[in-house]
């Protein structure tokens, strides 16, 4: 039996379980299992987002993030995985509640949207901090290239080769920065596509569940109709048997009654 936590939603579910366990213990147990699965998935997702937010808002010395493209992709995959788990648990829990007429204070879909928005904001904050760190490194590199000593040497010596090398280094730094901006744009597009795919998967699962529910309703109606036909057939058979018995016993009764024989 899953352990019931202390929030108001769970307490109401516990009261509902006590009132209905005698009538349909299997259904109520499924509802509680779905609730516990949803609680665990939400707790895992929430803890992951809290850890990421604390790390992003802490000092660079206290943060263990490296702010690389590989790390960003890994974080995005992890958040998308936790969101998918939470979406699946939400769908199952809402289906159990609908089947057992349990009213929810807040739709699981609304709560899931909040988690999606929160995760995307944290990923955007990660990208912004990563870009800020890269820009800071770029400025340091540019300052290192254009030091006063180098400028004085260029002015005094007027060496064209050294001046050309400095321009080439500056050009290389600018090219690297343009490449980083392009990579950030690509990652943002990938994030939007991943979000759209998550919504599409959520819609597909919901449509499949709706189709299965319609099939179950059709099978239930077909079962009721079959029972009606079977009952009608049994009633017709009994009526026919009673009619045959009545027709067979009627001549016997007429012969055994002397008054009826005399009048006849």
TrEMBL record:
InterPro entries: Sec20 (IPR005606)
One GO term of the biological process aspect: retrograde vesicle-mediated transport, Golgi to endoplasmic reticulum
Keyword Membrane attached: yes
TM segment ranges: 228-246
GO molecular function, one term: SNAP receptor activity
Coiled-coil parts of chain: 58-92, 195-222
Keyword terms: Coiled coil, Membrane, Transmembrane, Transmembrane helix
GO cellular component terms, semicolon-separated: endoplasmic reticulum; SNARE complex
Record's keyword annotation contains Cytoplasm: no
Name recorded for this polypeptide: Uncharacterized protein AlNc14C15G1684
Organism for this UniProt entry: Albugo laibachii Nc14
Lineage: Eukaryota, Sar, Stramenopiles, Oomycota, Peronosporomycetes
């Amino acid at each position: 039996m899953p352990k019931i936590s202390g929030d108001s939603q769970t307490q109401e579910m516990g009261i509902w379980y006590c009132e209905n366990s005698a009538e349909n213990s299997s259904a109520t147990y499924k509802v509680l299992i779905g609730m516990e699965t949803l609680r665990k998935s939400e707790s895992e997702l929430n803890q992951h987002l809290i850890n990421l937010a604390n790390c992003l808002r802490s000092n660079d010395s206290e943060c263990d993030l490296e702010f690389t493209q590989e790390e960003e992709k890994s974080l995005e995959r992890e958040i998308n995985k936790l969101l998918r788990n939470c979406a699946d648990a939400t769908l199952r829990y809402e289906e159990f509640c609908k089947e057992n007429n349990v009213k929810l204070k807040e739709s699981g879909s609304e709560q899931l949207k909040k988690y999606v928005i929160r995760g995307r904001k944290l990923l955007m904050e990660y990208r912004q901090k990563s870009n800020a760190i890269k820009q800071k490194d770029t400025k340091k590199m540019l300052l290192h290239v254009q030091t006063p000593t180098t400028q004085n040497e260029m002015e005094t010596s007027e060496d064209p080769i050294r001046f050309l090398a400095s321009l080439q280094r500056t050009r290389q730094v600018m090219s690297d920065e343009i490449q980083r901006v392009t990579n950030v744009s690509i990652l943002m597009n990938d994030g939007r596509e991943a979000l759209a795919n998550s919504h599409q998967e959520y819609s597909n699962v919901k449509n499949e569940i709706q189709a299965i529910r319609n099939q179950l309703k059709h099978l239930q109606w077909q079962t009721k109709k079959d029972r009606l036909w079977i009952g009608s057939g049994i009633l017709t058979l009994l009526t026919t048997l009673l009619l045959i018995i009545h027709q067979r016993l009627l001549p016997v009764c007429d012969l055994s009654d002397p008054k009826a024989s005399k009048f006849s």
